[in-house]
Amino acid sequence: MRAEWQAHIDELLKEYRDKRAQLRELQERLATAEATATAADGMVTVTVGSQGQIKNVEFDPRVYRRLSPTELADAVMEAAENAASQVRQEVQDAVNPLAPPDLEGFDLGKILGAPPRDFEETRERYGFRPQE
């Protein structure tokens, strides 16, 4: 009987170590997750991190001649929201395999909150108001 228990304990210990390694890998993946999106015909590029923070914004030099300040702000917000949506999906895809099987339909968005519905809500939520 002792050998059976030892085999069971060894199996549980292996499962624990495997899950711990998977969680460590998930933590690293979530810490480095980011997505990049463009708007305004590629003239605005925004990179967003795993928690929705803007990590980088790039403008094509032509953007200043082609877009008004309001249009530029809208393009930045559009690219940021698209990148945030992509990174949310990447995070969801990374978390899903480790979610317990009884959490079918697990939605990370319910935990992190829904993304803004549109540019106006994004501006209000984050207090962003462009000057014209």
Automatic annotation (TrEMBL):
Residues 97-132 are annotated as: Disordered. Residues 2-43 form a coiled coil. SUPFAM superfamilies: YbaB-like. The keyword Protease does not apply. Keywords: Coiled coil, DNA-binding. One of its GO terms (molecular function) is DNA binding. It comes from the Bacteria. Pfam families: YbaB_DNA_bd (PF02575). Residues 117-132 have a biased composition (Basic and acidic residues). This is DNA-binding protein YbaB. The lineage of its organism: Bacteria, Bacillati, Actinomycetota, Actinomycetes, Streptosporangiales.
